[in-house]
């Protein structure tokens, strides 16, 4: 009763989220039941109970796709972090309002473009007759175009662009919460700017780094349009396989099994990541 | 107050006097973009002129619409659905299409045999999946006249085909290996030999267009209509019919089971098979008419992949049995993804 008196709108606000959560649970239950049913060629309705969809997942092709997906996610998170940190740092610390606006627009603009538009743009940039190859050819660095499309490299480049805004926002939030007195104390004790950054600022921003990397990892795990279009069928990830094997050929039971395995795998990887990052987060914790 | 009541009564009388057909709308489910425009500019125009009934569209991808139709089974969102011939069989097998009474479609008397897909769905236009290439970007001296030419080592890393449907190249490989669609396994070994020549697999028509127009994949197994569209945009593409023939595709239409406008739906199907409408469709998309009495202009009729004579249908089209294709697509797709697309 005390709780409802303190928060009179609690029930009102919680109800929609419970309904949404119910919808998610129902969807997951549907995926689970589809994954346990047999695929009947030429029919839309799946057959009876079967574990064969999960047995299929043991093929090396799928293990390789899971591994490739993790590697692509890790590379994307790493390079996004490398690019996003200086951007976020400058965004928070610069006092020039014009520069701040320019940085903000640069960092956040990709969010306003759809994933498809961004991906098609990258096809134009990375193609054999695209911007990068044309430029390198024009300045005489290369005679033959460098193959960037349909490679893991191309997919990672485009995915970094997709995840960059979110990483910048998360890092900027973490950096803005750092008490500048710690840095001043370090400087007054004789530490130079680089040492102050490496021993004070960077450790204190670790919670933001961990949150950003985890989010980027999870986001990339479910990315579809970018690996599908840039990878051109030559780079297989879990989501592209779900599309190729499930939806493109109406094998919904197998697509469901693959999706379910993907969800479980993602949760496991994220849990491991969080566990590994716990000591770092503690190190970065500050009042 | 009396004035208002009188005005209201007059308006109600006026509305009641409008013919019922003018208030009705026929709902057609189709692909978006140029295919919706094609239907609106040709079939729907004729249908509305004949009946006074407007047409509304539900657009989406082949599989999205199939899923929606499945969820709405019994009370369909659309009265008519356009889909591919083999996916049409999935609609039919799931009881989503009504069995057609061809006596209610007088123009169906001229339907070519190849467009009579099932008792539930019939062709609306046809096309081929064939070889399209950029002569300016292929290695010097490479000639493309047969499907077997795709296997030439000079074409290493140049080829693309659709990732959503490998049936064309799989059946071609089976044919070149002495098999056919039913014995597709005979072509597996040969198909694996083609793997080095593949550079990419395109996801949709737009992706196909981009890959060939930028020269990223200078040779493709492509939809003839797509090739002609790119040609009209100035991309120097050569489209050929290989000596073994090109793989026929038929887009089809069916009446949704449970529709309350079956009579209008039949009239729409009849309008679609009108010879003038069929000629207009062929002009618009550079595809084949599915009736034998459509008169095309000589330029369109002369294009490779546009079939206007029984001889062309017989000798230039590789036909994969549509029902078999619906049943085998899953198996083919899986084999292709596991063996051809995987590194």
Overview of the molecule:
The complex is a heterodimer of chains A (about 290) and B (about 350). Chain A has helices at about 1-5, 10-35, 50-55, 60-95, 95-110, 115-125, 130-140, 150-175, 180-190, 195-205, 205-220, 225-230, 240-245, 250-285. Chain A is mainly α and about 290 residues long. Chain A has a single domain (about 55-285), classed as Orthogonal Bundle (MetI-like fold). Chain A starts with a helix and ends with a helix. Chain B has 2 domains: about 1-125 and about 250-315, Periplasmic binding protein-like II (D-Maltodextrin-Binding Protein, domain 2), CATH 3.40.190.10; about 130-245 and about 320-340, Periplasmic binding protein-like II (D-Maltodextrin-Binding Protein, domain 2). Chain B is globular and about 60 Å long. In chain B, helix 3 (about 35-50) links the parallel strand 1 and strand 2 (about 55-60). In chain B, strands 1, 2, 3, 4, 5, 6, 7, 8, 9 and 10 form a 10-stranded mixed β-sheet that branches. With about 350 residues, chain B is α/β, with parallel strands linked by helices. Chain B contains 14 helices and 10 strands. Residues about 10-20 of chain B have low confidence and may be disordered. In chain B, helix 5 packs across helix 14. The chains are: A mainly alpha (about 290), B alpha/beta (about 350). Chains A and B meet through helix 6 and helix 13 of A and helix 4, helix 5, strand 6, helix 8 and helix 14 of B.
Chain-wise SSE layout:
The complex is a heterodimer of chains A (287) and B (343).
Chain A (H helix, E strand, L loop, with lengths): L1 H5 L3 H26 L16 H5 L3 H34 L3 H16 L2 H12 L4 H8 L13 H25 L3 H9 L4 H12 L1 H16 L3 H7 L6 H10 L4 H33 L3
Helix pairs in contact in A: 2-14, 4-5, 4-8, 4-11, 5-8, 6-8, 6-12, 8-11, 8-12, 9-10, 11-14, 13-14
Chain B lengths: L1 H16 L2 H4 L1 E6 L3 H18 L2 E6 L2 H10 L8 E5 H9 L27 E13 L25 E4 L4 H10 L11 H7 L3 E5 L2 H9 L5 E5 H9 L5 E3 L5 E10 L6 H11 L2 H11 L12 H4 L8 H7 E2 L3 H20 L2
Parallel strand pairs in B: 1-2, 1-3, 5-6, 5-7, 9-10
Antiparallel strand pairs in B: 3-9, 4-7, 4-8, 4-9
Helix pairs in contact in B: 3-10, 3-11, 5-14
């Amino acid at each position: 009763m005390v709780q409802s008196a303190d928060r009179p709108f609690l029930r009102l606000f919680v109800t929609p989220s419970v309904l949404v959560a119910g919808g998610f649970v129902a969807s997951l239950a549907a995926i689970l039941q589809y994954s346990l049913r047999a695929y009947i060629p030429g029919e839309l309705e799946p057959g009876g109970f079967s574990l064969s969809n999960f047995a299929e997942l043991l093929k090396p092709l799928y293990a390789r796709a899971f591994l490739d997906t993790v590697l692509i996610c890790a590379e994307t998170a790493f390079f996004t972090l490398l690019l996003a940190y200086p951007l976020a740092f400058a965004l928070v610390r610069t006092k020039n309002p014009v520069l701040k606006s320019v940085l903000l627009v640069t960092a956040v603009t990709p969010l306003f473009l759809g994933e498809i538009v961004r991906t098609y743009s990258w096809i134009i940039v990375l193609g054999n007759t695209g911007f990068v190859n044309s430029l390198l050819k024009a300045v005489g660095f290369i005679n033959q175009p460098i193959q960037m499309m349909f490679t893991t490299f191309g997919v990672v480049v485009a995915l970094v662009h997709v995840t960059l805004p979110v990483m910048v926002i998360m890092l900027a939030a973490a950096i803005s919460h750092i008490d500048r007195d710690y840095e001043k104390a370090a400087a007054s004790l004789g530490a130079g700017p680089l040492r102050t950054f490496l021993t004070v600022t960077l450790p204190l921003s670790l919670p933001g780094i961990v949150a950003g990397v985890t989010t980027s990892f999870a986001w990339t795990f479910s990315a579809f349009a970018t690996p599908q279009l840039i990878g051109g069928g030559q780079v297989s990830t879990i989501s592209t396989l779900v599309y190729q094997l499930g939806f493109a050929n109406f094998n919904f039971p197998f697509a469901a099994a693959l999706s379910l395995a993907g969800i479980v795998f993602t949760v496991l990887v994220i849990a491991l990541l969080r566990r590994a990052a716990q000591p770092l987060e503690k190190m970065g914790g500050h009042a | 107050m009396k004035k208002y009541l009188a005005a209201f009564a007059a308006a109600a009388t006026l509305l009641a006097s409008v013919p019922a057909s003018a208030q009705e709308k026929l709902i057609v489910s189709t692909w978006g973009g140029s295919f919706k425009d094609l239907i609106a500019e040709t079939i729907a125009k004729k249908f509305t002129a004949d009946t006074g009934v407007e047409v509304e569209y539900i657009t989406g991808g082949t599989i999205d619409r199939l899923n929606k139709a499945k969820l709405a089974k019994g009370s369909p969102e659309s009265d008519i659905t356009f889909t591919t011939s083999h996916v049409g069989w999935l609609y039919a097998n799931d009881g989503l299409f009504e069995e057609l009474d061809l006596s209610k479609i007088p123009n169906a008397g001229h339907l070519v045999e190849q467009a009579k897909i099932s008792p539930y769905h019939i062709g609306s236009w046809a096309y081929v999946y064939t070889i399209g290439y950029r002569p300016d970007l292929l290695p010097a001296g490479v000639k493309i006249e047969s499907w077997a030419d795709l296997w030439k080592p000079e074409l290493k890393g140049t080829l693309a085909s659709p990732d959503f449907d490998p049936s064309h190249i799989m059946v071609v490989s089976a044919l070149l290996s002495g098999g056919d669609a039913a014995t597709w396994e005979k072509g597996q070994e040969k198909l694996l030999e083609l793997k080095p020549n593949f550079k990419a697999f395109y996801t949709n028509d737009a992706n196909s267009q981009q890959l060939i127009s930028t020269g990223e994949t200078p040779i493709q197994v492509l939809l003839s209509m797509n090739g002609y569209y790119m040609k009209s945009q100035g991309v120097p593409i050569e489209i050929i019919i290989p000596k073994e023939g090109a793989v026929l595709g038929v887009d089809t239409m069916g009446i949704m089971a449970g529709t309350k406008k079956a009579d209008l739906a039949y009239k729409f199907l009849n309008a679609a098979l009108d010879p003038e409408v069929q000629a207009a469709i062929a002009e618009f998309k550079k595809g084949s008419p599915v009736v034998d009495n459509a008169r095309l202009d000589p330029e369109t009729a002369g294009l490779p992949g546009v079939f206007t004579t029984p001889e062309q249908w017989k000798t230039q089209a590789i036909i994969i049995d549509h029902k078999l294709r619906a049943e085998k697509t899953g198996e083919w797709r899986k084999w292709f993804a596991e063996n051809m697309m995987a590194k």
